[in-house]
Write a structure and sequence with these properties.
This protein has about 475 residues and is of the alpha+beta class. Helices cover about 45% and strands about 10% of the residues. The chain folds into 4 domains: about 60 residues, 434 Repressor (Amino-terminal Domain), CATH 1.10.260.40; about 55 residues; about 140 residues, Arc Repressor Mutant, subunit A (Orthogonal Bundle), CATH 1.10.10; about 160 residues, Beta-Lactamase. The longest helix has 30 residues. The two termini are about 60 Å apart.
Length: about 475
């Protein structure tokens, strides 16, 4: 501490005002002049070790309080000013430090106000979804990042892009009918554009899945990726070159508000195009119907991953040539929803997907196993759901692997078309009652309830305690 300069003027001022002392009175108690105390409070002089000891003795001040009180406030302020609504307000972090140091109480109040705003924004969003489900349009919306805008737009549209399907079919004809799509794409990239594909070790590409070097005309892939994922990255790069105009037309049709959102959408559409290239529409649909939508059979037949085959099932809605209308949701272990899409758009109003009782959350306890379940919504709608974990890029021994879980669902009335329908009890039996999300669900006695519904007042009765942590009337 002897060599460390501690500037704690605002904290000294707060201690003095809390005790109702003038600068003269406090200076006398510390054995210093009022002018020197004034300089300390204005952060123009540091605290010395003898002065810290006098503060601790005379006013019972914890020395640690004088050194690091602003740390938590600063971290919380960073959270506030990372919000899209405020991200452009500060030129740098020094102003945050100044606020946290000079006015920690005001900083704490600002953080509380921001968190209350986020809580109310979340409640308004839930209320908006509930009203939309009842057919009442609202204009309620919270501040969104570009990725949130892209996800929202894509979730509400049918997950079928006929323009990209036709381009992918034309591209397959150019590549030929051989079974080695990876080899055909590598040959096409080299012969048509002089691009060589190389797989590099983790040490060389620690942070990337795919990187295209324009100077050397080489496409680098990480060895972390499984063969199906490596193929998809090659197909994405080829699609961005071959289908550039078609992808641009689809991006423009989304009417996004920023260049960053359009860039993100371009990647999502390139991934769609890659799936259409790897799993051509008509052969994939025919194979799916013959196999009764057995995803493991499809992944083997087309040399793709479980996630790729499941995602492709949500796109089979070509007019007069459609399959079962699936929708899909991917979550991580913390319950964050990473992706949602559907053949007819993701059914927010009917299904939601925020219920903690869904099998997609239980899947993490049984990695690699497909969990089949029938669920019933409060309005009587019934769905067949499949849930399974997905493994991310392969890590090293000392790295924690990325694991997410996928939920694939369709109307329960389609159960006879699916091989998974046989895993369910007889019709009407063993149906799990779920809800769209806790805040929108009014089911009573739910052991899994995490939040009270926005549509009911809390039932605060000292004489009665329900099964849920949030009793409501």
């Amino acid at each position: 501490m002897a060599n460390q300069k501690i500037f704690a003027g605002p904290r000294i001022r707060r201690i003095r005002t809390a005790k109702g002392l003038t600068q003269t009175a406090m200076a006398e108690g510390l054995g210093i002049s009022p002018s020197y105390l004034n300089l300390i409070e204005r952060n123009q002089r540091p605290l010395t070790v003898p002065l810290i000891l006098k503060l601790a003795s005379a006013y019972r001040v914890d020395p640690d309080e004088l050194q690091g009180e602003a740390g938590l406030s600063l971290a919380a302020l960073r959270e506030v000013f990372s919000d899209p609504l405020l991200a452009g307000e500060l030129p740098g972090e020094q102003e945050l430090i100044d606020v946290a140091e000079a006015a920690p109480n005001a900083a704490s109040a600002l953080v509380k106000l921001y968190r209350a705003y986020r809580e109310q924004a979340g409640r308004l969003t839930d209320l908006s979804e509930m009203l939309a489900r009842e057919g009442r349009a609202t204009a309620i919306s919270a501040a969104r990042l570009p990725i949130d805008e892209v996800r929202e737009v894509l979730e509400r549209r049918p997950h079928h892009l006929e323009g990209l399907e036709e381009e992918a079919e034309a591209f397959r004809r150019v590549l030929g009918d051989g079974e080695d799509l990876s080899g055909a794409l590598r040959s096409w990239l080299r012969s048509e554009h002089g691009i060589a594909v190389r797989v590099l070790p983790v040490a060389t590409m620690p942070n990337w899945r795919r990187r295209y070097d324009r100077h050397s005309h080489r496409l680098f892939l990480s060895e972390r990726l499984s063969p199906p994922d490596q193929l998809r990255e090659i197909a994405i790069e080829a699609s961005l070159i071959r289908m550039r105009a078609a992808i641009a037309i689809e991006v423009d049709a989304l009417k996004l508000s920023s260049d960053e959102a359009r860039r993100l959408a371009r990647f999502e559409l390139a991934r769609y195009a890659a799936h259409a290239l790897m799993m051509p529409y008509q052969p994939f649909l025919a194979a799916a119907e013959r196999a009764r939508y057995d995803i493991d059979v499809l992944r083997s037949r087309f040399a793709v991953s479980f996630e790729q085959a499941a995602s492709r099932l949500t796109t089979l809605s070509r007019p007069a040539m459609g399959g079962v209308s699936f929708f899909l949701m991917e979550v991580d272990g913390a319950g964050n929803r990473l992706r949602r899409c559907g053949a007819e758009g993701y059914p927010h109003s009917r299904f939601g997907g925020g219920c903690p009782k869904l099998a997609v959350h239980a899947a993490f306890a049984q990695p690699g196993r497909i969990l089949v379940e029938a669920v019933e919504m409060p309005d009587g709608g019934r769905f067949l759901t499949l849930a399974r974990t997905l493994e991310g890029p392969h890590g090293a021994f000392d790295e924690r692997p990325r694991r997410t879980a996928l939920l694939l669902a369709c109307e329960l009335a389609q159960r006879e078309k699916l091989i998974y329908g046989g895993a369910l009890p007889a019709a009407g039996d063993g149906v799990m009652p779920v809800g769209p999300a806790c805040r929108l669900c009014e089911r009573t006695g739910c052991l899994s309830r995490a939040e009270p519904p926005v549509t009911r007042p809390l039932g605060l009765d000292e004489m009665v305690t329900g099964l849920s942590a949030f009793d409501f009337q």
